Input
Amino acid sequence: MSIRNCVLIFGKSLNLAGLGACLKQDESLDVQFLETKDPNIEKCVSELNPEAIIFDLSDPPECLDVALLRNRPGLLLIGVDPSNDEVLILSGKRSRVITSIDLAQVISNQIVKISNKEVD
Output
């Protein structure tokens, strides 16, 4: 039996439900839904340990913040806005820097990566 990657969908909008149905077709994914008003959100996220959390950009849950990304460096937060076909992907990927020169290099490299992706 293969390990399935957990994807957590925050919300029950028609668009998120449709996206969830599409993702469930991928047998490598374990797609779970969670109400954004659920009082046990943090506990559920901790128990499910998702690789990605998908949410509606027009109404992002308050619990999806920088602290969550910092505590879970491998997590992807993926905001979707079907009204304008926008997808925002946030990652908790970390880099260690010692000097200002190191920091400048990390920032420069990330900007180059983003610029090159936009050209593709």
About this structure: Strands lie at 5-10, 29-34, 52-56, 76-81, 86-91. The CA atoms of residues 9 and 54 lie 5 Å apart. Residues 100-119 form the longest helix (20 residues).
